[in-house]
Design goal:
alpha+beta; seven-stranded antiparallel β-sheet; 30% strand; 41% helix
């Protein structure tokens, strides 16, 4: 495959990507100066066609060759053994055309220079490239599994799990806070508008408007999550986990098993009650694609299946710890002190600037801060009861350390194999030593090109020292 062009439909994808990034700018320009908006749009179309005609790729015997550029011609050579992963993305309307997007991530840094984006090519190109990569890395070059072929995946998510996961997705919390701030600002800037309106009626109107926004955002986010993780499947393929997901845009990616540094089970409090668990992994390399940057191995799985499924992949995750260390028995008061600091500051600021708020908005803010404070108290209680460090022995492994933590009603369990630990340290301030001789245990692992800290806070110093001795002597 020498000196090929990507498919002509890629022009549409170039346009879509640019318009998506600068959508509000284009809309503003079209409203403010329609002629300038049309000129900008036509310029964008021209640039997209120029990109198409000046972008060529070649899949050679030993490497991929990319040629692009208008005034400055550039050539990018990537040997197959330097490829870290190949991601396949396919919109539903591209399936009858046998076209897909290929994203080739190299083994270098996680910036734009470490990836090749073949915007739209034949599915045969992806298969041929996968085969070349497998041969170059010394793996079994058997035929790449096609999504259309009938096979039994290692794990396939049920519709029930997808619905529960989508219904308990609280990623829109920050958006809700932003909308609340905007609504509050609007009503404070429009005091004259509500001078003739009963204050209680204004309060009800604000609450109803806020609830309506939340419901609309919730439905949108539910559908987005449901479509994104539709028909999630996980396969084992040549020492890699092969992940496929998506309804309208089908994504396929690989996670190399030997790059995994840490296995994490996570649940928010609702999913914990409903028996749903997420399995994440930390990798040596970071993906530049947003959908895989967190390295979600299994986004949702019935908690009763975690040991039977994940235990087959990582045997140490279903073993019991032979030694467990809990946090300091009065750690609740320390966590409470840390978490109530922000609500107290907010409450003081609201009271100091009360004259800037309508009475109804003022009491609404005070109520929200009070509810937030109560949640922080409950979270501190749960955190103090669930924090622990465990030591696990497993065949053919020097040892495994597991750390359980709770962060804002989200439960996390980390499993770290001994030889994946970069360093371990004990942190102790003068007051921690004087107060009850307690300390923080910090484990450092490699994640991408950076370091990741995993902490267990307010352990007894003697317990932290025992864990440190385990790390030194194992």
């Amino acid at each position: 495959m020498y000196d090929r062009r990507i498919n002509l439909l890629s022009v549409v994808f170039y346009l879509y990507k640019t318009l998506k990034n600068y959508f509000f700018g284009f809309i503003f320009l079209l409203i403010w100066k329609p002629m300038l908006g049309l000129i900008a749009l036509m310029s964008l179309v021209t640039i997209s066609f120029v990109k198409y005609f000046t972008y060529h790729y070649s899949i050679l015997d030993e490497q991929i060759l990319i040629k692009h550029g208008i005034f400055f011609k550039k050539e990018l050579h990537i040997p197959y053994d330097k490829i870290q992963s190949i991601q396949h993305n396919q919109w539903f309307f591209l399936k009858p055309l046998n076209l897909e997007q290929l994203v080739v991530n190299t083994a270098s840094h996680s910036d734009s220079k470490s990836r090749i984006d073949l915007q739209l090519v034949s599915i045969k190109v992806g298969k041929f490239l996968e085969t070349k990569h497998l041969i170059a890395t010394g793996e079994n070059s058997k035929e790449i599994t096609n999504d259309n072929q009938l096979h039994e995946p290692f794990y396939q998510a049920s519709s029930r799990d997808v619905n529960i996961f989508a219904a308990t997705n609280f990623s829109l919390f920050s958006t809700i806070v932003l909308i609340f701030v905007l609504i509050t600002r609007f009503f404070n800037d429009s005091k004259r508008l509500f001078n003739d309106v009963n204050q209680s009626l204004s309060m009800y109107f604000v609450i109803l408007l806020f609830i309506a926004f939340i419901l609309i955002l919730y439905v949108i986010d539910f559908l987005r999550t449901k479509f994104k993780y539709h028909n999630f499947t996980l396969d084992l393929n040549n020492d890699n986990f092969r992940i496929s997901l998506g309804l309208f845009k089908r994504k396929t990616d690989k996670i190399p098993i030997n790059k995994i540094q840490n296995v994490i089970f996570s649940q928010n409090i609702i999913r914990r009650l409903l028996g749903l668990t997420t399995v994440n992994v930390d990798l040596i390399n970071e993906k530049s694609d947003d959908d895989f940057k967190n390295s979600v191995l299994i986004p949702f799985i019935d908690s009763s299946l975690v040991k039977s499924k994940v235990g087959r992949l990582f045997s140490y995750t279903n073993k019991n710890a032979y030694n467990i260390f809990k946090s300091y028995k009065y750690a609740f008061w320390l966590f409470l002190r840390n978490t109530l600091f922000l609500p107290i500051i907010l409450c003081i600021l609201i009271i100091l600037f009360r004259s800037y708020f309508l009475d109804s908005i003022f009491w609404l803010l005070i109520s929200l801060v009070t509810v937030f404070s109560l949640l922080m108290v409950i979270n501190a209680s749960i955190k103090a009861k669930n924090i622990e460090v465990g030591l696990i022995s497993a065949p053919h492994i020097k040892g495994v350390i597991t750390i359980k933590d709770v962060r804002f009603f989200n439960y996390y369990t980390n499993f770290i194999v001994w030889d994946k630990i970069q360093s371990m340290e004990i942190r102790q301030t003068y007051f921690m030593k004087k107060y009850a001789n307690i300390a923080h245990l910090v484990i450092n692992i490699r994640m991408g090109e950076n370091n990741k800290e995993i902490q267990c806070r307010y352990l007894k110093y003697d317990d932290a020292q025992k864990i440190m001795d385990w790390y030194k002597l194992t």
